[in-house]
């Protein structure tokens, strides 16, 4: 300062040592809500999108296979969002093995087929698509599988088959009402 006081200390974005928050140990009830998925930790995951957080939640799910599979699929989606398709595929296989819910399985089969196509595992994509098609999947899931089949045919130079798969996928996407899948189907059909 100008009147003999020392100049103010430079400001820092860091908190002082005593200003940090301490994290309380969660009560048994709070731990239970994390395990059951009732806690807003799903909101925390949506903000961070860290696959390791989802995998830890899957581990904490313990014997609840369906909940564990949901968290594993979330970890796979986070890896897919980062372009890590090869890392996401084994997680999706694990989630499919854990959970028999047909709605969830349809989404996971679609994600797995995308991973297989993006990593160039076309023979595996074909086999897994055949396996998935024997399950009771909804139209949106069947459409996504069809889109990846159309892409596989196109990449192999089988253009007529690609167009047929893309057209069938578009019809399924329209009947499903899923606009995201329908948009992808329209683009795929146009490019086939």
Summarize the structure.
70% of the residues lie in helices and 0% in strands.
SSE diagram, text form:
Blueprint: H1 28-36, H2 41-48, H3 51-60, H4 65-81, H5 85-98, H6 102-118, H7 122-133, H8 139-155, H9 159-176, H10 179-191
Q: Give me the Rg, rounded.
A: 23 Å
Q: Share of helix among residues? A: over 70%
Q: SS-based structural class?
A: mainly alpha
Helix count equals 10
- Low-confidence stretches at least 5 residues in length (pLDDT < 50)? 11-26, 34-41, 43-48
Mean pLDDT, all residues: 80
Number of strands: 0
Strand content: under 5%
The shape, in one word, is: globular
What would you say this structure looks like, in words?
The protein is mainly α. It is 70% helix and 0% strand. The protein has helices spanning 28-36, 41-48, 51-60, 65-81, 85-98, 102-118, 122-133, 139-155, 159-176, 179-191. The chain is globular, with a radius of gyration of 23 Å. The model is unreliable at 11-26, 34-41 and 43-48 (pLDDT under 50).
Keywords, separated by commas or semicolons:
192 residues; mainly alpha; 0% strand
